[in-house]
């Protein structure tokens, strides 16, 4: 990260981030965050450095760097910070400032697909329904679950559950424990056939607008199916 | 006491009530004005010919261009000889306050800067920014100002706060950029941390250094280019500065050393007129009737100095009102026994021995430490109610408990200062720690009250071991009591050796009043040591 030529302080604008309200200016450089951070040291990343650069107004440099994408936003730094600096919030804010097409591939593409098709995989509705029914059939073959079926788009159910895209892709087995519990508990539940995606990668890319759209779709499903309880396991 | 009580001078016809205040600055003036408001005549002796801008006050008498020559007499009755030019004159006063301003030295050298038209001190910056300043500053329109603070030595909050406030106020102006280049920044003072945050929020750029400090180049246009390495990001930074503001070091005023010597009061390692002794609460000194305030006490901010002026005023008022009443036991020199050797005079840390037709203790100045008593070769000095010898023999004559459970325990006498060992002993008892059987505690007003004879008398009365407990180094109420005690104990140990007795049967140690468990532990360890000596 260290440039060859000295950075001219005259060209920096420390005031640019004072409106962020993440309290980056309160940093005492005590390094509690750096000791708590599970990825400190990767690519020379150190939460203090990021906070320091933001405080100096060196936002562009941080936006261009890999640091905000090395940070996992786990928030351990924030838990130990004695001054209440919103370090993970700073990471998210920095991520939001990167051009969409320069956001690391999978996040950018997944989010674009979700906005366009309702899920990160662009999985067609027929395929989605086929996979769910296939899993339901397998459960029905197990003793004690005879006659089990997946209630898709059931109007007036008590509970709507969202689905993480990997559960209809590589981890279909992981659907079964949930559904078996619903069955055993006699839960009146349903899954929406459109906009069923539970993940919202706008959270990771700092895209508040996308998060709003994704959340809005889930609320819309609840309205349409007249469900008043949501299970959103993400 | 009631701070607003007025001294009724008619009730004290025998003494003057004048107070002499040395110093002419804001703190000294405030004390004088406070005292005048209480109807007390206050004299201000300032070494300067023209004292700093004085608020006019009717009750204050100014003695400008005046220095102390000698001080005789005692609390309530000091006789000062003052020098003005070549003239000497006498002034009788009841109390003295040392309130000379501190001295603030600009730090040019630590930053490798010569005095320069574009380098100023924080004091000159403040003067420039003052609303009534005669010359307006030129900081508008794109000025970049670098503040250099605490590179060589850690900054002191009293100075750093002013530097930070300067940054914050300049940042309010349009197009002005401030840079705060600091070493270790100390914020342990009221409001200092808030000041740091306020400066940061106002947009000041903070750069902190611990080992690699910036380099400053003077450019052809007399401005500066500053290169530095940011220790957090490890990035090199460079910027141009139009002005540099350097901090200042605070030290004792120029005349303080002479004053302290003339008045016979303690001073600390730096030269301020009050040691680090925990017993010197607020404005007290080792001499009754002499007080120290403001910039003469140590490094205090301007606000703290003014607050200290009020506190010193209360101290002086309390002294003037209570000087006749006395809770301390009286110390007297017995006529006929005194050989006029003046050992007491040399020993007394409170300057309470008067040499006249006979040698006497001045009650008003005496603080009843008993150091003179223990040091008098003729044993001519007595303190009212104090009988260490009698106390010792009474304790040693106590019959052993029936079917003595401590048969094997050695008999140990612990002499201790009531201010430290006495308090620690009380703590030991409160926390339920029983001292080993056979231990007797003999309290004295000071470690220096215990003489070599006392220590040896304990052995004569049957003690197997003797321990002397004083206050810690530099924390003796009577300044020298613990040092004198140590000297006496070492002599007594030599005498033991000469008499063929193990010298480790006598030990000297120090405790603080809050060291209950340590006191208990020290005594137990000493008892074990004595048992080991007895067993061999």
Task: Describe the protein's architecture and organization.
The complex is a heterodimer of chains A (234) and B (536). In chain A, 43% of the residues lie in helices and 4% in strands. Chain A is built from 11 helices and 4 strands, in the order βααααααααβαβααβ. Chain A has a 3-stranded parallel β-sheet, with no helix packed on it. In chain B, strand 14 (224-230) and strand 15 form a beta hairpin. In chain B, helix 10 crosses helix 13 and helix 11 (452-460) packs across helix 12. At the A-B interface, strand 1 and helix 2 of A face helix 4 and strand 15 of B.
CATH class identity of the largest domain in chain B: Alpha Beta
Shape of chain A: elongated
In the predicted model, the low-confidence regions of chain A spanning at least 5 consecutive residues are none
How would you name the CATH homologous superfamily of the largest domain in chain B? Answer: FAD/NAD(P)-binding domain
What CATH architecture label of the largest domain in chain B applies? 3-Layer(bba) Sandwich
Structural class of chain B: alpha/beta
Q: What is the rounded Rg of chain A?
A: 22 Å
Helix share bin of chain A: 40-55%
Strand fraction of chain A equals under 5%
């Amino acid at each position: 990260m260290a440039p060859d030529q000295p950075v001219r302080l005259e060209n920096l604008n420390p005031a640019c981030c004072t409106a962020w309200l993440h309290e980056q200016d309160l940093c005492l450089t005590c390094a509690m965050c750096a000791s708590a951070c599970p990825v400190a040291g990767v690519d020379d990343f150190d939460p203090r450095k990021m906070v320091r650069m933001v405080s100096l107004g060196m936002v562009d440099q941080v936006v261009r760097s890999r640091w905000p994408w090395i940070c996992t936003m786990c928030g351990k730094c924030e838990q130990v910070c004695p001054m209440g600096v919103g370090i993970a919030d700073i990471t998210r804010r920095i991520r939001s400032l990167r051009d969409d097409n320069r956001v690391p591939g999978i996040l950018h593409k997944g989010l674009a697909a979700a906005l366009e098709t309702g899920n990160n995989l662009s999985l067609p509705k027929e395929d989605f329904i086929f996979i769910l029914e296939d899993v339901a059939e397998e459960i029905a073959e197990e003793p004690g679950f005879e006659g089990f079926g997946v209630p898709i788009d059931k109007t007036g159910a008590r509970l709507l559950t969202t689905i993480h895209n990997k559960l209809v892709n590589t981890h279909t087995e992981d659907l079964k424990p949930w559904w078996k519990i619903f069955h055993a508990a006699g839960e009146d539940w349903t899954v929406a056939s459109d906009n069923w995606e539970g993940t919202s990668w706008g959270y990771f890319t700092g895209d508040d607008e996308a998060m709003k759209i994704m959340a809005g779709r889930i609320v819309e499903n609840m309205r349409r199916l007249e469900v008043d309880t949501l299970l959103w396991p993400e | 006491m009631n701070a607003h009580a007025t001294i009724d001078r008619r009730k004290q016809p025998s003494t003057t009530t004048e107070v002499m205040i040395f110093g002419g600055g804001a703190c000294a003036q405030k004390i004088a004005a406070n005292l005048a408001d209480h109807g007390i005549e206050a004299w201000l002796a300032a070494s300067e010919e023209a004292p700093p801008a004085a608020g006019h006050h009717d009750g204050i008498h100014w003695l400008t261009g005046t220095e102390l020559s000698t001080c005789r007499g005692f609390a309530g009755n000091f006789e000062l000889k003052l020098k003005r030019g070549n003239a000497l004159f006498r002034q009788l006063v009841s109390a003295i306050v040392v309130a000379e301003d501190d001295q603030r030295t600009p730090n040019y050298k630590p930053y490798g800067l010569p005095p320069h038209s574009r380098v100023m001190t924080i004091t000159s910056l403040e003067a420039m920014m003052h609303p009534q300043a005669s010359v307006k500053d030129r900081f508008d329109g794109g000025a970049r100002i670098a503040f250099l603070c605490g590179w060589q030595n850690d900054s002191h909050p009293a100075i750093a706060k002013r530097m930070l406030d300067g940054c914050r106020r300049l940042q309010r102006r349009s197009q002005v950029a401030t840079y705060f280049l600091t070493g270790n920044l100390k914020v342990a003072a009221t409001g200092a941390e808030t000041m740091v945050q306020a400066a940061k929020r106002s947009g000041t750029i903070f750069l902190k250094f611990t080992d690699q400090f910036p380099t400053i180049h003077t450019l052809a246009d007399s401005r500066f280019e500053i290169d530095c390495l940011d220790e957090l990001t490890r990035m090199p930074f460079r910027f141009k500065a139009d002005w540099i503001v350097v901090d200042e070091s605070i030290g004792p005023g120029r005349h303080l050393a002479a004053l302290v010597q003339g008045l016979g009061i303690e001073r600390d390692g730096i030269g301020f007129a009050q040691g680090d002794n925990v017993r010197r609460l607020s404005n007290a000194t080792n001499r009754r009737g002499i007080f120290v305030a403001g910039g003469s006490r140590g490094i205090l901010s301007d606000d703290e100095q003014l607050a200290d002026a009020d506190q010193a005023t209360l101290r002086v008022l309390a002294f003037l009102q209570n000087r006749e009443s006395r809770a301390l036991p009286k110390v007297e020199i017995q006529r006929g026994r005194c050989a006029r050797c003046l050992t007491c005079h040399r020993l007394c840390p409170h300057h309470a021995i008067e040499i006249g037709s006979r040698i006497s203790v001045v009650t008003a100045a005496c603080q009843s430490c008993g150091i003179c008593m223990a040091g008098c070769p003729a044993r001519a000095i007595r303190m009212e109610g104090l009988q260490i010898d009698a106390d010792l023999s009474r304790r040693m004559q106590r019959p052993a408990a029936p079917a003595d459970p401590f048969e094997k325990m050695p008999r140990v006498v612990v002499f201790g200062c009531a201010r430290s060992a006495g308090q620690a002993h009380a703590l030991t008892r409160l926390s339920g720690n029983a001292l080993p059987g056979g231990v007797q505690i003999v309290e004295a007003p000071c470690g220096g009250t215990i003489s070599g004879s006392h220590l040896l008398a304990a052995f004569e009365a049957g003690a197997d071991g003797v321990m002397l407990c004083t206050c810690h180094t530099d924390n003796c109420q009577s300044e020298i009591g613990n040092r004198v005690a140590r000297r006496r104990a070492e002599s007594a140990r030599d005498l033991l050796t000469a008499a063929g007795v193990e010298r480790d049967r006598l030990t000297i140690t120090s405790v603080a009043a809050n060291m209950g468990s340590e006191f208990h532990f020290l005594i137990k360890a000493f008892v074990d040591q004595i048992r080991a000596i007895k067993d061999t």
